[in-house]
From TrEMBL:
Coiled-coil blocks: none
Source organism phylogeny: Bacteria, Bacillati, Bacillota, Erysipelotrichia, Erysipelotrichales
Designated name of the protein: Hydrolase
CDD domains reported for this sequence: HAD_BPGM-like
InterPro entries with a match to the protein in the record: HAD-like_sf (IPR036412), HAD-SF_hydro_IA (IPR006439), HAD_2 (IPR041492), HAD_sf (IPR023214), PGP-like_dom2 (IPR023198)
Cross-referenced SUPFAM superfamilies: HAD-like
Pfam family, one: HAD_2
Length: 221
């Protein structure tokens, strides 16, 4: 039985990863790092600054470019999405309402800053009100390390094996597997490679399809 749901945020709840790729590419070009391939930018989705620093020797100042992106992120977001709710991914409102109606607690576990997470939630155009927000900036190891998911489960008081993780990134799917949690991959910007394909347990088109999955899983529990 699924007793709790853990959401990633960027690219899963909100359509921010396409925005990130555009913003980061502009920042890299400004730093003269035009040669950074899209595959490197893609690999940074769902990870934090500690993993980004691994590219510093190959692409000097890439960490500085990312730091500036983070600092300017909210201004860029409000230019990109000028209307509240316009960044919401399909099915977000329906799934959140379903979880509330069924009294299934849910958390958000994201590598983003807590204040950014809270701002995105406020801009959704409807009350999301998660039971818990866990930010990767609060000392958790970066995905695919399972620490942030295990921390969320611990704070929710739910065994990891009874948690459902919703993810759109390779690092997130691998982190869910490493945490021994059930996971659903909901595609956004990532095209799964072989390692990711082997880690994907379930795949759904959008968040609305998670409702039927939960109904089926908990009906037979």
């Amino acid at each position: 039985m699924i007793k709790a749901v853990i959401f990633d945020m960027d690219g899963l709840m909100f359509d921010t990863e396409q925005m990130f790729k555009q913003q980061f590419r502009e920042k890299l070009n400004a730093y003269g790092l035009n040669a950074v391939p899209d595959t490197v930018i893609q690999s940074m989705i769902g990870c934090d600054s500690r993993r980004i620093a691994m590219y510093e020797n190959q692409y000097p100042t890439i960490s500085k470019a990312m730091e500036e992106c983070q600092q300017e992120r909210m201004d860029y977001f409000f230019r990109f999405f000028s209307v509240p709710g316009s960044a919401n991914k399909q099915g977000l409102k329906e799934l959140v309402q379903y979880l509330k109606n069924k009294n299934i607690p849910f958390a958000i576990a994201s590598s983003s800053y807590r204040e950014h997470i809270e701002t995105f939630l406020e801009y959704a155009g409807f009350p999301i009100e998660p039971a818990l927000i866990v930010s990767g900036k609060e000392g958790y190891a970066s995905k695919p390390d399972p620490a942030i998911f295990l921390g969320a489960a611990n704070k929710l008081g739910v065994d990891p094996s009874s948690c459902l993780v919703l993810e759109d990134s390779k690092n997130g799917i691998l982190a869910a597997k490493n945490a021994n949690m059930i996971s659903i991959f909901i595609p956004d910007q990532i095209v799964p490679d072989q390692e990711m394909k082997e880690a994907i347990q379930y795949e759904k088109k959008d968040l609305s399809e998670v409702i039927d999955f939960l109904e089926q899983e908990n009906e037979h529990a």
